[in-house]
Amino acid sequence: MTTMDAAAEQAGLLLDRGQRAYEQGRLEEAVEHLEGAAEPARRLVRELPRDRTFRQGLGSVLYSLGGAYITARRFPDAVTVLTEALEAYRELAAKALMADVRARRGMAHALTGAGASAVTDVQAAVIGYVRRAGLNRYDADYVGLCRVLMLGSDVLGAYGDPTIGLNAAQTGLTLCVNAIRAGELTPDGALHQAMVRALSVERELLHALDRPAEAANAEGTLQWLGEEPLRTLVAERLAGDSPGLLLPVADAVATADDPELAALLLGEPVGPLCAPAFRVPPPRLTEAGVAAADAAVRLLPGDPDAAVRLGLEAHFLLDVAHEDRPPRDPVRAVWVGVLERMRAQCEVDGDTALAADLAACAERL
To answer: Peptide bond preceding 40: is omega within 30 degrees of 0, i.e. cis?
Structure first.
């Protein structure tokens, strides 16, 4: 057996042990095995960087390790290894695997309070699966879309427009139930938990949006499933010091009193409004993002809640508009400028984690 064969066997063995330990609730053991698997997996990629099997193996190890780190509440470590996993899959152009990594990294970002990065990750995951899935084709991409919508709804509701978080939860649940009723899907434990999270998010957001009867329906569905509502990111944001983050974009646009902005952001969406970028046809994303950024700056200091809502929305739109190419001035200057103004406002509001995240977003531009 060659040295490379031995390293591959070691990585595979430790990955299997780590995944089994995680599934059985032995978290410390799972982390130990998965960290052990990462080292030979990295070594194989360093030795043979063009080998697709080794690179995909590294991504798989790091994706599993990131999940274990999240469960262990080692959120910054999770972000680090999931970023490494994303790069491994990007080299392979493995779009579905990249979407899964970004969905998981989005949750890790959110759990550190890095809400802007969290939403852009979840949005990218949703868009990735929307581009791949067929609504009448109950395959792995369909299930992946259900999963990222249901799990990502918590991030989108906590740091994005709450109506988008609600739409994501409800759309994911509807797609999932449609497949179950068609006899094409039997939820496993992970998908069942995603449904419980989506119902919990739906319940919290409906309460926040003053729709108590519909919230009671979501709670009734949880009771029918024999489940208690989960503690969601949305609930934590509502209980914290920045409830203004749960201001809908429509309310912020009304505050801005700008008919052109309203036409851009509140017109007919390009599909189910489950991600910020679906508000606007792709050719107009930059125009809409710049308009939202300008409105956000105009609203300061008089209405900081509406300003931050529109400033974040500008960031989410521009991130998709420039997903494949870096922005140039004057767009870059507007984008960096609004991130800086929102960072300063978040510091005034005491949301230091989001302020730090916005600073990091600006630096990446």
So the answer is: no
Phi, psi of 269 (to 5 degrees): -70, 165
Amino acid identity at 141: D
Matching residue, tokens 């300008």: 294
Q: What backbone torsions phi and psi does residue 284 show, to the nearest 5 degrees?
A: -110, 10
User: What value, to the nearest 5°, has the Cα angle with vertex 149 and ends 73 and 231?
Assistant: 40
Q: Is the peptide bond before 301 cis (omega within 30 degrees of 0)?
A: yes
pTM for this model (two decimals): 0.95
Both structure tokens of 241: 């010091």
Give the count of alpha carbons within 13 A of 23, CB side only. Answer: 9
d(CA 172, CA 148): 8
How far apart (Å, rounded) are the C-alpha atoms in residues 130 and 124?
10
Nearest to 100 by CA among 190, 178, 203: 190
* Burial environment of residue 25 by CB neighbours within 10 A (0 to 12, 13 to 18, 19 or more): exposed
Q: What is the pLDDT of residues 130-153, one digit of tens each?
A: 999 988 889 999 999 999 999 999
Write out pLDDT tens, residues 200-237. 999 999 999 999 999 999 999 999 999 999 999 999 98
- Measured between alpha carbons, how far is 114 from 160 in angstroms, rounded to an integer? 12
For residue 26, the 8-state DSSP code is -
Sequential DSSP letters for 188-213:
-HHHHHHHHHHHHHHHHHHHHTT-HH
For 228, which DSSP code?
A: P
